[in-house]
UniProtKB/TrEMBL annotation:
It comes from Virgisporangium ochraceum. SMART domains: AAA. Residues 6-230 form the ABC transporter domain. Gene3D superfamilies: P-loop containing nucleotide triphosphate hydrolases. The keyword Nucleotide-binding applies. This is ABC transporter ATP-binding protein. Keywords: ATP-binding, Nucleotide-binding, Transport. Coiled coil: none annotated. InterPro entries: AAA+_ATPase, ABC_transporter-like_ATP-bd, ABC_Transporter_VariousFunc, P-loop_NTPase.
């Protein structure tokens, strides 16, 4: 069994003259719960569609568990919840479960029925009459009932209220905790991602800009605050803000065991949200100080 769930090399997808994704190279280890983050148009949905075989590369290569996407063997291993959680609105959950059983060789009907019972979702009510949160839970249930090795989620909680988002994410974590499922979760809601994800992929302008374990990436960055004329040495500045009196710099390459900081600097820890926003605030990927964590 491969220890790599997803691997791409120079992956690109072009629509006409425009590249939705370009020169995307990454490796996602199996068993991780990964956040896929980036501004609108960064290529997040395009990447997910390439992974599930709904779109074909214009350049480069992509593998899922060592194989090209789209084959029956690979599709049996993938659960996918698209951005608008598409479901046949006139169908009931019971009918959708039966459809899932007929279309998927390893579909776990018992898991699906039990999960909907635990959530209090009626199996005989048309999903078009349900709330957005309930529809999202039905879609997640159908994906989990495939018992996938890779679960792809494209903005599944974007339209949910805070309570429904929390319930969805709790259900997600409960559903994958015992299975060792690899999860790739696209979302703009950084606070939610920080609670559940242990791996980070940042796409910017169609390219990978940050890639790696959340703990390692956060530990590698610090916020330095000091006098306006100070400059750090031996560290890469990701983002800086200066006034006439004060400088605030988010830097990378910090190692408390070897990094020597001028004592005039005040050193602060950063959150995942601080890190992501700093990179995205720099604008186009080509203007950033170089990819973080991306293998050469």
């Amino acid at each position: 069994m491969t220890d790599t769930a997803v691997e791409t090399t120079g992956l690109g997808r072009r629509y006409g003259k425009n590249w939705a994704l370009r020169d995307c190279s990454l490796r996602l280890p199996a068993g991780r719960i990964a956040a896929l983050v980036g501004p609108n148009g960064a290529g997040k949905s395009t990447l997910l569609h390439l992974l599930v075989g709904l779109s074909q590369p214009s350049a480069g290569s992509v593998t899922v568990f060592g194989q090209a996407p789209g084959s029956r063997e690979v599709l049996d291993r993938i659960g996918f919840v698209a951005q608008d959680t598409p479901l046949y609105r006139d169908f009931t959950p019971a009918e959708l479960i039966e459809m899932g059983r007929r279309l998927n060789r390893a579909f776990d009907v018992g898991l699906a029925r039990d999960r909907l019972d635990q959530l209090g979702i009626a199996a005989d009510r048309a999903v078009g009459k349900m709330s957005g949160g309930q529809r999202a839970q039905v879609a997640l249930t159908l994906a989990l009932a495939k018992r996938p090795r890779l679960l792809l989620l494209d903005e599944p909680v974007a339209s949910l209220d805070p309570l429904a988002r929390r319930e969805f994410l709790q259900a997600l974590m409960g559903g994958v905790a015992d299975e060792g499922t690899t999860v790739l979760l696209s979302s703009h809601l950084l606070g939610d991602l920080e609670r559940v994800c242990d791996h980070l992929i940042v796409l910017n302008a169609g390219r990978v800009q940050v890639l790696g374990g959340v703990e390692e990436l956060v530990a590698d960055h610090r916020l330095l605050v000091g006098a306006a004329d100070l400059a750090p040495h031996g560290l890469t500045v990701v983002q800086e803000r200066r006034t006439d009196r004060q400088a605030s710099l988010l830097v990378r390459g910090y190692d408390p065991t070897v990094t020597h900081i001028d004592p005039q600097w005040t050193v602060h820890d950063v959150s995942l949200e601080d890190l992501v926003l700093a990179y995205l605030a720099n604008g186009a990927a080509d203007a950033l100080p170089g990819p973080v964590g991306v293998r050469p």
